[in-house]
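Note to self: the last two entries modelled the partners one at a time, which told us nothing about the interface. This time every component goes in together.
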Amino acid sequence: MATEVLMPALSPTMEEGTLAKWLVKEGDTVASGDILAEIETDKATMEFEAVDEGIVGKILVAAGSEGVAVNTPIAIMVEEGEDVDAAVSAASESSEPPAPAEAEAAPSAPAAPKAPVESHTLEPDYPEGTEMKSQTVREALRDAMAEEMERDGSVFLMGEEVAEYQGAYKISQGLLDKFGAKRVIDTPITEHGFAGIAVGAAFGGLRPIVEFMTFNFAMQAIDQIINSAAKTLYMSGGQMGCPIVFRGPNGAAARVAAQHSQDYAAWYAQIPGLKVVQPYSASDAKGLLKSAIRDPNPVIFLENEILYGRSFEVPALDDYTVPFGKARIWREGEDVTIVSFGIGMQYALEAAEKLAEDGISAEVIDLRTLRPLDYDTLIASVKKTNRCVTVEEGFPVASIGNHLSAYIMENAFDYLDAPVINCTGKDVPMPYAANLEKLALVTTDEVIAAVKAVTYR
Amino acid sequence: MAARRTTKKPNVSKEEMLGYYRDMLMIRRFEEKAGQLYGMGLIGGFCHLYIGQEAVVVGLEAAAEEGDKRVTSYRDHGHMLACGMDPKGVMAELTGREGGYSKGKGGSMHMFSKEKHFYGGHGIVGAQVPIGAGLAFADRYNENGRVTFTYFGDGAANQGQVYETFNMAALWQLPVVFVIENNQYAMGTAQQRSTSSQEIYKRGAAFGIPGEEVDGMDVLKVKEAGEKAVAHCRGGKGPYILEVKTYRYRGHSMSDPAKYRTREEVQKMREERDPIEAIRQLLLTGEHATEDELKAVDKETKDVVNAAAEFSKESPEPGVDELWTDIYADVAPQNA
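The predicted structure of the combined assembly is written out below.
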């Protein structure tokens, strides 16, 4: 009986990969546990083992193929004595239509290689005519760190697995080779301790970049972030600043459950003394991280694992920075303002696209930084559209959206034609089950429904 | 007169001993004055006095060199005075005035001086320990040969981040002296009720950090131990732990009636082990100083403290604009 070997998912967020190398050839007999192939994900090259014993009947995807979607058949295994050709044709017939799991995953996880997201920035942060290149958020973050480390010898990176492992999410890939072990430092798994050491190093005149493997782990360190890093400048009457960047993935990845899925935007945005950045695009990730590293204040830089592998257009400039406190208008519109940040922008932009088909013109604002926050752009937009929907992945109570609603009410009450609606994650710990997880997160459909509610459509 | 142990002839000059006497007396008089001002309502909030522990910081400062750093907890007035910060600025911070080191915005627990390499003044028990190691990290990074004194109490010694820090300080060979000021009470909890092993200095052994116990009521012994520790750190051998046995005469803070120990216990310490009285006797019996010379020091000290108290009352409260300053440092202009 022939069986298909499918392209494996080798990380929670992997949607596709490169079949780097076959380690077996057609006709080879393999045992369970033998290595069949090397698969390159966006984070690492992994060996892929045979589950069952059998004979490699046919290799369907050649070595070197890029963008192979998860669950694509890559080879067919046959049993001893089986007619290979017959088995192969039988197997490939039975494999159509695609497995239900694959079909279900498709809407939220497009499998084909993605085209870079077009930037619709109305006021770009770079001169007109600047040459652009396509880059993933991951590459943009790495380049930002590398450029700033090149520029300033007091900048160093520390965190779990940032050096020899090349980064748990491969953000620091290559940095150890480039800058050496003095400046790219693997820490023990001890967030509270190394966050405190980094704060001390900042007091001592260095400019640390602290990578948290995820911001969920930074709760161990939050006393040092808030009590030591954020408050010392004030408590010292301006004498003792803390130039430091705390960065890492934040919010939900995929199927990693309650303890690894929280969005901390609202937590940190509440603290005077911190700056809080949550980029969406690769160009903003790069420009804002460079600004964060140069900033003389503690900066919380909230990334997103799902966005790491996504490509965007990035200006091909030697030194591209994006200032804090300046929102980016991705799409101009007349009927409603959709305001978001980070991965929330994905839902906001998708919703705007679909709403346009229904004749609703949405203005989409990416706040980019939550502290400082560009209230002017927000209020100007609300005064124009008279309606507002906020979008974020975090919990609903005391959310960024709640704050924006209050601010709009206080500053543009007379311009509002409908109450502001906050689209957020649900008020539940993140569930593991795929269907429940989907329900717990904010969705494009919810944003569309909110827009229709505020526009009375 | 209480019995004194005979001290072997100290390897310090008359000037040095007189300096330690002066510095310890300054801390004591300053703290007594702070206690008075607190009673008068001029100092508010939490105020933790250092009376009784003076030999610890004075002895260790005697082992420090210019450029070495120090960081401590909220019982910090003594450390600031010992490293040369201006008593006026410290007292005016206690009264919450414009002339204070933090312009009145930090208070007793939060003062800093870049000039004197004093990095606070930290209010969260144990939080200064990784910060101290981080200062040492910066020194090692800059290869400048400096050492950081990181002070914490026997109470803080039970915080997890202390051991996270020990691990990394040993792993990275950071030039940091961990000074455990063991005054035997973590607020109201006696050491034997809070701490599984009584020899805290041995806790570094698990990380390969050498440690020793020091008589914290004897400034010369503290200095000697400090010099050994500093030499170890400066020699690139990594961190060192000193558990300095000391005693605070006052409560944990001004509002602590200290009912967890007997009056007799405190009295016995004051009479038999007072560090200032000890050095005073040493100066007199060794004929390094006359009563008159010491009286002159007493008066001089009192004058400085009184002037600081005067300044702290006269200095105005911070301007209301100060509410909104020093939240963020200015960003340097960015390239286009």
